[in-house]
Amino acid sequence: MAAKMWSAATMDGREVFADEVAEGSSLRCKYCGAGVCYVPPHARENRGNTYGVRGYFRLLPKSAHEEGCEFNVREQLEVIARRSLGLVQALERGQYRFRLLAIGDMRDLKVYQAQSTGGQAVNSSSVRGALFSCDPRRLLSAYLNTAKRIILLRALCGDDFILKDRLEFVFNGMSVSWHEFYYEEERFTAAYRWLGQATLPFPIALVGRVSAIETIKGRGRLLYVLKFKTSTARPYARDQTVGEVIQAAVWTSQLEWVKSLKENDEVLVFGHWRHATAHTHTRLAKRGDACFRKYLERRMAIWLHVKSQVSRIYRGNGRRTERLLRS
Predict the structure, then answer these.
(1) d(CA 232, CA 247)
(2) Residue 326 reports pLDDT greater than 70
């Protein structure tokens, strides 16, 4: 089980990155020395839609990362579980379970903790987990940090296949698939559809690129809106002459939580996404647009309760993403 790699090492030990390497180079994992190869940028189809995939490094056939390697997914899951304060439960045969929590703010968290303490079983290691021993603020911090590490690991993997049989999600007694939990830019439409259909919505993760950060004055205070780049237009199912795009927006009253982010930065945002109040905006196509006669802009939004709900993903050079997983 191996994650995608954004950097590798040449045979003489020099570090190279996926956006600068020459094809055909002999390469190895910079941590354990396993043989790797470069996969150039390419197009990929998913459910009838085509999107671009960045270049990356992957293991050569019949190669394997050593147990302690940063790119050994099984090893990383074990590390995440050990540091999760009981929030990631170890199951049989190297499998794990992460329980999603419906927490809107600190008041909800206190109520949830009181309910959990009253009747839930302890984990299989017979050690009282974070749900039973932590104060609300420590529980929230542990929960969000664990979720962030899991999402970053998924972002490194490139698809659901590697993790789907190793880590399962549970929400309110219901099993949640990776396909329902994790959405990159090309699947924003699927996230929007899911939000409209879910009878019991749970927190999900969106990964996209920053378009802009806007300041809005309202009700005596300043609000800050981080907007993701609009998704690529797809034909509307009911009318192929109409394009459908998704606009995702992140709202906060804390400028310091988003001020370090810049246009085109890739970020993950985890929490309770919802349809925006005015969730569909119609605009006519510009003159000369040969694709569609008009566009439906679907809007979804999230309010940040804590800074750790939003994190930048460092691909291309890979250094920071790996440090986040180790931290």
Answers:
(1) 10
(2) no
Report the distance separating Cα 98 and Cα 90, nearest Å: 9
Per-residue pLDDT band at 46 (split at 50, 70, 90)? low
Q: What's the burial of 247, exposed, middle or buried (CB within 10 Å: 0-12/13-18/19+)?
A: buried
- Of the candidates 229, 193, 207, the residue with the CA atom closest to the CA atom of residue 157: 207
Q: The whole model's pTM is what?
A: 0.76
- By CB neighbour count within 10 A (0-12 exposed, 13-18 middle, 19+ buried), where does 148 fall? buried
Burial of 315 (0-12, 13-18, 19+ CB in 10 A): middle
| Sign, Cα dihedral of 148, 154, 155, 156 | positive
**Residue among 248, 110, 272 nearest 186 (CA):** 248
Q: Nearest 5°: CA angle at 316, between 249 and 246?
A: 25
Query: What is the number of alpha carbons within 13 Å of residue 250 lying toward its C-beta?
Result: 31
Letter for the amino acid at 140?
L
pLDDT tens digits for range 225-241: 999 999 889 899 899 99
Find the helix packing angle between 136-157 and 319-326, rounded to 10°: 140
Question: How do strand 15-17 and strand 294-303 relate by DSSP bridges?
Answer: unpaired
How many structural domains does the chain have?
A: 3
CB neighbours (10 Å) of residue 77?
22
Question: In terms of DSSP bridges, do strands 167-171 and 96-99 run parallel, antiparallel, or are they unpaired?
Answer: parallel
209 and 304 assigned to the same domain:
yes
Q: What is the spatial distance between Cα 39 and Cα 55, in angstroms, rounded to a whole number?
A: 5
Domain boundary among 119, 153, 176: 176
Q: Which of 145, 176, 207 is the last residue of a domain?
A: 176
Residues 99, 104, 110, 111: is their CA dihedral positive or negative?
Answer: negative
